[in-house]
Amino acid sequence: MRALITGISGFVGSHLADHLLALGGWSVAGTVWGGDRNIAHLRDKLTLYEGELSALERVQEIIEDTRPDVFFHLAAQ
């Protein structure tokens, strides 16, 4: 399964990424804006995309690249 987590570097997003990876069988990607705090220990297990979610073209690129089965929208700002 492929998951895309917006706000992956936040409190909830980082714990969700940890959980999905611990389950096994998950490919996890996420969006970050302004750094990768809380997920530095997972950098080699994730695919990260920097981008502002209000930029429609960037969001479309990310979705086309990741083709997620599940989308978790946890971005806050």
3D architecture notes:
The chain is α/β, with parallel strands linked by helices and 77 residues long. It is built from two helices and four strands, in the order E-H-E-E-H-E. The protein has helices spanning 11-23, 56-66, and strands spanning 2-6, 27-32, 46-50, 70-73. It has a four-stranded parallel β-sheet with strand order 3-2-1-4, sandwiched between helices. Helix 1 (11-23) links the parallel strand 1 (2-6) and strand 2. The longest helix is centred in the N-terminal third of the chain and has 13 residues, at 11-23.
Going by helix content, strand content and strand pairing, the class is alpha/beta
Helix run count? 2
First-to-last CA distance: 27 Å
What percentage of the residues does DSSP assign to strands (E)?
A: 25-35%
- Summed over residues and divided by their number, the pLDDT gives a mean of 94
Largest sheet: 4 strands, parallel
The count of strands amounts to: 4
